[in-house]
C-alpha cells in the first residue's frame, strides 16, 4: 500500500491514519492518494470505512474481472480501466486491471495484474506540481491517458506482427503454421478489444456530460483521451478485419501452392510412367522372340535380329511421338 | 409448491390460505414467497385469483419458452429469466426458465426445467435477515444475480472448451472431428446468447429507469448485475467470433496437412516409379539379347555379355543421374 | 366473400347491403366483418365506396406483395401481415398475405395465397362472445396472434430440419448434396425473415404507442404478440447463423473426408507400386542371365543358378527392408 | 430541352421565354415543366438565372454521379434519383440519374444516362388532368414512383438470374464459370444497392416530415413509395446474402465433385496397378527359369514346366485374393 | 512557413510579426493565413502564444496520427483532415494529415506528409477574391472540398484496380498471386476508410449544427462536401465488400482449375497405366514360354509360336476392350 497526502502541488509524507489524513487534506485543500495491489477484503475494510466507499464498488475492486466502466455512487466516482501490455515474442496481449475510487479529497487506485501505470502516473504528477493542484481528477486523467497511450502502442505492435504474418503468408516459404499464428493473434485482438471498446463510452461521458467530480474546464483533456481511445478502437477493428482477410488469403495461397506442387508432381509421374510404358514395349516384343519354340518365324533369317530390333525402335519412337503429341512427355 | 410468509427478516411457517397470508403480510409489513415447479393452469388458478395476477403473464409462466423480459401489469411486475447450466462432458448448454411475479407483498417464482437458483436464493436470503427485510425486490435481485453469475461461469467453461479445441486443431494429431465439435459448440453458444442478450435491456431498466416495484436505493445493485450481464454478453460474442475463426483455421490446417501428406505421398510414388523405370531398362535390353535368333550380333564375341551388362549399367546410372537432376529421386 | 354483422358478441346473418349493415352496426354497437379472397379491383369498388377506404391501401390490398406494415389513413387503420406455412417434405416456407382494414364499425380481411388464419380466427371469435365484444381490435389481435404462433411453429420445423442436416453432415455417410440442402433452407429462412422481422415494428407501435383504433387496455395483448414475434425473429437469426456455420462445417468435413480417402488411396498405390518395384528386380536380373551369349560368366558353374536366385532373393529382401524403413510398405 | 407550361390540368404550348412563362404560370395557377438531357453549364445558365436555382445544386445536376438525396435551398427543393435498368442477357444493372428542381411554379428534370422515366411520367400526367392539377409535387411523386417500381422489377429479374445460378450450381453439370457469374452479379447488386438504399431516407422525410414543397395531403402517396423502396432494399439485401451463400455452396459443390472424381480415378489407378502387379509375378518367375545356366533345377524333370506354371498360377490367384481382401480390386 | 495577411479579397505581403498582423487583420476586416509543414513544438510556440491556441490541439497538430475530427476550444475551432493519394503502380493509398486552427481572424494549416491540398487551396482562393472575402471558413471549406474530391478520385482508382483484379481472376491465366494482390488492396482500403469515415460526422455537424465559426449561409456548401464524403464512404464499403467477394471467387476459381488439371492428369495417368498393363501381358506369357525346360508343351508343334502369339494378341485385345468399357482408355 502506497499512501500519501498531497497538497499545494507537493507530496507530504505524514499519513498517520486515514481520518486524520482526510481531515488534513480538507484543511490544506489537498488530497490523499492511496495505491493498493490485489488487496483482500480484510485489507480493504479500513479504507472502506475511512472513506465511506460504496459496498458494490469495493466488491468489484477486490474481485476484479470487471468491464471498463465509470459509475457514480453518492460522492464517490468509481472507475475500472484495463491497461494492456503486449508481450511481443509470444504475441500475447496481457490485460491488467485498475479500479479507481475518486472522491473530493482522495483517490484510491487498486491494481490487479502487472502494470506500471499507477507508478508512472504518480511519478509524473509528483514532478508536475501545477498538474497535481487539480487533485484527484488529474490522477484519473493521468491513468486514462497512459492506458490509452498503451493501447495505441499495442495496436502498433500488433500491426507489426500483422506485417510479419503478411510477409510469411505471401513470402517464398509457404510453411504450415500461419493459420495458428493468425488465429492466435486474432484471439488476442478479441481480448484486447474487450479492454478498449467499453472504455469509449465512459470517456465520452467524461468528455461531454456532467460527471460531478470532473470540473468543466477538464473536459477537453478527457475528450483528447477519448479521441485516442476511439482511434485505438478503430485500429483494433481494422486489425481484426485484416486478420480475417489474411486467414482467407492464406487459405487461398495454400490451395494455390498445393495446386502447383500437385500439378508438378503429377506431371512428373506422367512423364516417368510414359517412359516406363515405352520401355515395356521392347521387353514385350523381345520376350515373344525369346520363347523356346522349335519353329519361330525368321529365326534363321540372316537379318532377323536387326529387323526385330528395328521394329522395336520404330515402335518406341512412334510411342514417343504420340506421347509428345498428347503432352504426356 | 414451496410457500412461506416472511416478515421482519424471518420465515414464518403458517400459510393457511393465500388471502389470510396476504393480509398478514400486510399487517406485519412482510411478504409471501411462493415457489412452483412447472405448474398446470389448474394449479395456478388459485394463485391467480388470490394475488390478482395478470392473465397474459400467467399464460407465459405456464407455457414457458418465453424470451427474458420484464413487464409491468398494474401493480404486478412480471419477469422472465433463463438460467443456464453447462454440462461439460457433452458440451451442452442447458437452459431452464424462471417466471417471477413481483407484488408489494408477494413474490411468486415459477420454475421450468432444472435449475437450483430458486432454492439457492431462498437459502441465502433466509440466512440474511437484513437482506430479507427489503422484501420482494431482494428476491428478484437474488435470482438475477445468481443467474448472471452462472452466465459468467458458463462463459468460463466454454472458454476452456475453446482452449481444448484450439489445442486439438493446432496440435500434433489433425483428427477428423474438429468441425463437428466446433459447430456444435457454436450452436450451444447461439442458444446461450438467446438466454443472456435479451436480459440486458430489462436489467438496464431496473438499473436506470423508474421501475415502480424497485426502490431507488436498490438500483446500484441491479446496475451491478447488469454490468456482469454485459460482460457475459461480450464474452459470448467473443467466443462466437473465435469459434468462427477456429473453424476457418481448422479448414486451413486440414488443407495444409492434406497438402503435406499428399506431397509426401506423391513424392514417394515418384521415387518408386523412377526406380521402377530404371529397373525396366535392363529387362528390356536383356530381353532383346534373349531373343532366339540364329544370328545375334556379338553373340559369339568373348566379352559380349560383359559389354552388354556394362551398357545396361551405364544406361541405369545415366538414368539415375538424370532423375536426380530432375529431382525425381 | 364471407360477410357478417356481429353485435353483442353474436353473429347476425342479415347483411343486405353494406350501408344498412354499417348503420345497424352503429345502432347496435356491433361491427361488420368481411372476408375476401384475392379480389379484383372491381369487386373491391363497392367496399371502397361503402366504407370510405383509402385509395392507396386498396391498391396494396389488391396487388399484394407488400411488406408487413401498419398504417393509419384518417379513421381507417390498414395492416399487412404475412402468414407462413412450412411444407416439410420439400423444406419450403410458403408465405401468404393478409391485408386488414380496421374501422370503428368494420373489419375487412383480404387474403392472398393459402392460409387458414382468417377462418380460424372467425371460428375462434364466434365461439368466444366475450372476446367478440371488443370488436375489430379483437379481430386484428386474433390474426396477429395466430400468425406469430405460426412463425414459432415454422421456426421449430426449421430447427428440426437443421438437426437432420447436422446429422447428415456429421454422420457416417458424407454424401454430396448437403450444400444444396443447406443453401436452399437458407434461402427459405431469408424469405421467412422478410415476413417476420418487418412486423416487429408495427407490433411495437400497437403495444406501446397510441394507435387510435386500439384501446389502451388492449396493449398488453399486443405486447404479448410482439414478444413472441421478437422470439421468432431471434430464432430465425439463430437458424440463419447456424446454417452459415453448418455450411462451413460441411466444407471442412468434406475436405477432411477427401483427405482421408485420398491418403488411403495414395497409401495403397504406394504399397502396390513398391511391391511391383520389388518384383521388377528378379525380372531384370534373370533377364540378364537369359541373354543368348555364348559366354556367360558362371554359366557352367554347378551352382550358378542357385547363386543368382539367392542374389535375387537377397536383393528383394533388401528392397523390402528398405521400403519398410521408408514406410512405403 | 422539352419545355411546357401546364395549367388547369392541361398542357399549353406557348413557352416564349422563361420569365414570361413563370409569370403566366403564376397568373393561371399552373407550372412550367422543363426536361433536359445531360446539359452543359452554359445551357443551364439561362435556367439558373430565370428560376433562381441554387448554385450548388446546379453543379450537382450538371456533373451527375451524386448520391440519391433530397435537399432544400430556400424556395427550391432539389432531389437526385437514380433509376436502374437491368440488361438481362449480360446481367448488368445500368444506373442512370435524374436531378429534379422543384419550385412552387416550376419543375426541372435533368436526365443523365438512359432512362425513359421522365418521358413516361410526362405522358402519364398529361393523360391525367386531375393529377396534373397538383403541380410539381405530382411530377416528383410520378418520378419516384416509377423509379421505385423499376427497382422492384430489377430485383425480380435478379431473383430469376439467382434461380438460374442455383440450377447451374446444384445441377448435373458442374461447370467452371459459376464463381465468375456469381461474383459479377454480386457486383451489380452492390451497385444497385447504392442507387436504392440512400433513397429510403429522403422518401421517409417526404412521407413523414414537413418538406415545405409537399402538401400534407400528399404524404401518404410518398409513404407508399417509401414502402416499396424499403421492400426493394430488403430484397436487395436478401439477394446479396443469397449470392454469398450460393458462392459458398458452389465451393462446397466443386470440392465434393472434385472429391468424387479424384476418388474414382484413384480407385481406377489402384485397380490397374494391382492387375499390373499381379502380371509382373509370372514374368519374374518365368524370367528366372529363362536364365541360361547349364544346370537349372528340375530342368529335365518331365513335369517341370507344368509345375512352375502351376506355381505361377497359384501365386497370381493368391495375390488376387489378397488384393481383394485389401479392397484394392 | 507560408504566412500572409488577406483582406478585401486580396493578399497583402507585409507580415512583420503575428500580433501586428492580427491587429491589422482586425482593422481591415481581413485574416492571417499561416501554413506550416511538420513543425516542432518550438516552432509552434510563437504561434501558440500569438493566437492563443488551445494546448491540447497544438499537441495533436504537432504529433499528428490523429483521427479526422472537429473540435471547439473557446474561440478557436480545430479540425483534422486526412488527405489521401493513390500511388497506382504499387497500389498503395498514402495518407497525409492536415491540422487546421480556425479563428475569427486567422487560419493555421499544419501539414504532415505529402499533400498538395494547402497549396492548391491557397492558389485557388487567391484567384477568387469574392470567395476569399468569406475569410477562414472559405479556407476550411476549400481544404475539405479538395480532400473529399481526392477521396472520390482514389475510389475511382481503386475501382479500376478492382476491375483489373477481376480480369485476372476470371481471365485465361489463373496465376498464383491474386490472393496477395486482393489482400493488399483490401488492407489499403481499410486504411483509406479510416481517413474517410470519421470525417462524415464532423462534416454533418458543419452542415447541420451551429458550429460557431461557420456562418449559417455557408452550411449548404459543407452539406455538399458531406454528401460527397458520404458517397466516397459508400464506394469504399462497396469496394471492401467486393474485395471480400473476389477473394472467395478466386478461391473457387483456383479450386475449379485445380480440379480440372488434376482430373486431366489423373486421366492421363490412368490411360498410360492401362496401356502399360496391357503391354505386361505379352511379356508375362512370352516369359513363360521362354523358360528353359526340356519339355515345354507344344514346343515342337509346327504352329506353336503362332498359336501363342495369337493367344497373346487375343488377350491384349480383350484387355483393351475391357478397359474401354471401364472408361479407363
Q: Would you kindly provide a written description of the structure presented here, covering whatever features stand out?
A:
Five copies of one chain form a homopentamer. Chain A is of the alpha+beta class and 329 residues long. Chain A is 62% helix and 15% strand. Chain A has nine helices and nine strands. In chain A, the strands form two sheets. A seven-stranded mixed sheet of chain A has the order 2-1-3-9-8-5-4, sandwiched between helices. Chain A has a two-stranded antiparallel sheet with strand order 6-7. In chain A, helix 8 (219-289) runs antiparallel to helix 9 (304-325). The longest helix of chain A has 71 residues, at 219-289. Chain A is rod-shaped, with a radius of gyration of 38 Å. The model of chain A has no long low-confidence stretch (mean pLDDT 89). At the C-D interface, helix 3, strand 4, helix 7, helix 8 and helix 9 of C face helix 6 and helix 8 of D.
